[in-house]
Every structure is written in C-alpha cells, then in structure tokens.
Amino acid sequence: MPPTNIRLAIRGLTRHKVRTILTMLGMIIGVAAVMTMVALGNGAQQSVEQEVRAAGTSVIHVNAGNYTRGGEESSIATGLGSATTLTPADADAIGAGVAGIKAYAAGVRLRGWIASGARRFYGQVLGTDVSFAPMFGWRFDEGRFFSASDVAARRPVVVLGRTARDQIFGVGASVTGRATTIHGRSFTVVGVTDTADSDQIEMAFVPYTALQDALGMSYLHTITIEAAQAGEASRVAAEAATLLRSRHAAHINAAVEKLRQGGVTGNQMPVTGAGGLPDDFTVKTQSSEALTKGLYTSVAAFILANLPKLDEVNLAEMNATLQRASTTMTTLLAGIAAISLMVGGVGIMNMMLVTVKERTREIGVRRAVGARRRDVLLQFLVEALTLSAVGGAIGIALGFATSFGLTWLLDWPTRMSASAVGLAFGVSAAIGIVFGFYPARGAARLDPIDALRSE
C-alpha cells in the first residue's frame, strides 16, 4: 500500500470530520461490543474452571503415616501407624516419575494459636509450596501468595484465609505487612485469600520450609498433587502409591521385622493385603476422602474399587457442561458480532458512495492526467480500509476500557486474549475492504469525460 495513497485517504476523510466520525461510530460500537462480550465470555469460562478446581476433583493427598485397620477378611493391608519417612525428595520423585501430574506441593501441618497483639485465633497452619494456590483457583482480597524465593529462603511470611484474618485483626482489616506470631515465631502477612473452600478460609499458609524450621523437623506431613485431568486422579494416585512403596520399602520391611521381634502377634500385627506389604503412608484423591470419611474399612474399600469409574463419569459430565456453555457463548457472540459489524459495514459503504458522488469531478481530473482504473480503485479501497481500521482500533481500546470498568464496578470476571484482539482488528479491516469495494469499483468505472462534466 503506497504511502501516497494513505496520505490521500487521510486527507479525504478529514474533509468531513463529523461525517467520518459518525461513520466510524458504527464500527467502533460493533468492535467494542464484540471485545466486551469476548472478555466476559472468557472470564465466565475461567470462573467456571476455577470453581471446578476449587472443588478439588483433580486433587490427590499423600499423607505420612497409615492408620488403616485392615485384615485378611477384607484383603486390605493394615497400616504401620505414624511415620516420619515422607520427605521433599519423595515429592520431587512423584512429580518427575508419575505421568499426568500438573503440579505438586510438599506440606507440613500444625494446629495451634495464631496471634497478633492481644488477639489470637486457634486454627490450622499449613506449610506448603508455591503451586498450592493455583491448584484451588485462589483469588486474593489483598496482597499475594508467597513466592518460590520465599520458600527457598525459608522466609517467615504468611497468607491468611479471610476468616482467619477477621478473627486475628478484625473484619475487613488491611493486614499486608503486619506481623503475626505462629508457634513462637514472627511471620509477616503478605496476602489474604478469599478461597471458596470453607476450611481454607480459616487457615494460615506459610512456606513449608519456614514451618519445618519452626517445628525443628526435616520430613513432611503431606504432599498435595494436582492431576492434569480430573478423570486421571485415581490412576495418578495409584502410581504415586506404587512409587512411594518402592522408595519406602526398606523402612517398611524394617518396621514389620521390628514388630515381629517385639512379639507383636495376632490382630495387632500388620498383615499383608491385596496391595502387598503394609504402608507407612496413605494416598487418596479428594473425592475418595469425601466419600469414605467415617466409613468402615471394608465399605470404604468397596467404594474405592469403583472410584475410577466415578472419576470418568465426573470428567465426562464436566467436559459436557463446559462444552455446552462454550458453544452457547460462541453462538451468542457470533450473532452479536455479525449484526454489529454488518451495521458498521453498511455505514462505511454509504459514506463511500456519497464520497464518490461528491468527488466525481476529481476522479475525472485524475483519469484525464493519466491515472488508471486500478489507481482509482486502490485509492477508494484504501480510504475504506483506513476508515474501518481506525474505527476498529478505537473499538478495541473502548472494549478494553469497558471490560476493566465492568470488573472494577461490578466485580464481573473478564479476560482479554491476544487472539481476540487480532481477530477483531482483522475483521474490522476486512469489513472495510468488503463494503468499500463496491463504491471503489464504481469510482474506477466512471467515464473520464462524463466525470469532468459533473458539477
């Protein structure tokens, strides 16, 4: 596109500024409406995905120790009781050795007082890693989650659940940068989470390395794993258990032998079940924990045997729901986009027809001095393209502003994507070419003599 054509197009459009602005208005409103609806649609989909993650359907918990009461009649190995064998190296081995894991986080637990000045709150403190918050789709009332550097440096920082914050500092208090005391040590508050989990909003979260230092320990209490797909949670849990069983084999064998040498027999002696030797850990999906809580071992075993099928059903239902929502939103957006951009395109065609009519004599002069038909065609196409492209760019900016405004004023989730911006600009430019071609072709086909006679 020659620079001369662009300069002539800008000069032609600025001759009638009000008319140009009014013509652009249709394109601006159309593109802005499409951008806003895309941002709302993406935000709604992201919100649904966060809710699904918050439900924990793809979360797996590995806990140190095993208090399962099994027996030969249920073909379940009895647990070995408490254990201090779960380590950060086990967490890294699971992350590297089990396929289908999206994220994992080492964990240390403490139940105790969380205090600030004269106020204190008795609750659970979870030492964890940076990947924990994204697993549950957390949003923050203020501040942030602690960083990888905080974990590596064993930094005493804490993120509070909303209810814990209200109990310790007062309802709605701004707490970032303030100090709390946990297990006799001072921790600086870096954020407050507004998680949807009713237990997590009453907890405090610190780097697991910092809590290890406070408790004087090097092992872990738990490892939290997120499967890449909810339907794979049971398979990931089974493979993680197999891996840990092989890593802890020496300790398990030594513990069983020690019990035998100590004279433990009968029902008190851990027995081998269908899974092999008794374990010094447990691995359960969050769904299985919820379904088997408080049940007898034999009943829980029956439920867990059918859990993989339940995972597959849940995954199919979630995928179908998200697909239906996505299809409905896409259809709605396509309809709005088509109508809005059609109106903008008709406006551009109308203005270009008027422009050709007004500049008929100019076209005759240009043809008389040697301009070819394609030169005239290109000139008016460039004007239509400039008109629609500028309108599209302003519409994109207005769409961003509207989306941010909706998020700020109404707390509606919105999310812009680079592909949506590129598509909006490309479509607006294409509208200019498509709807500007007919007037431009009419201008190019004018007879030079008749055009010069025009008044």
Care to describe what's here?
It is a single chain. The protein is an alpha+beta fold and 455 residues long. Helices cover 57% and strands 15% of the residues. Strands 2-3-8-5-7-6 form a 6-stranded mixed β-barrel. α1 packs across α14, α2 packs antiparallel against α15 and α3 (88-97) packs across α8. The longest helix has 52 residues, at 307-358. Residues 71-77, 265-269 and 271-275 have low confidence and may be disordered.
Poorly predicted runs of 5 or more residues: 71-77, 265-269, 271-275
Distance between the termini: 31 Å
Class based on secondary structure composition and strand pairing = alpha+beta
Listing every helix as H and every strand as E from the N terminus to the C terminus, the arrangement reads HHEHEEHEHEHEEEHEHHEHHHHHHH
Largest sheet: 6 strands, mixed, barrel
What is the C-alpha radius of gyration, as a whole number of Å? Answer: 33 Å
Instruction: Tell the overall outline.
Output: elongated
Q: Widest sheet: strand order?
A: 2-3-8-5-7-6
The overall average pLDDT, rounded, is: 79
The helicity comes to 55-70%
Total count of strands: 10
Helical segment count: 16
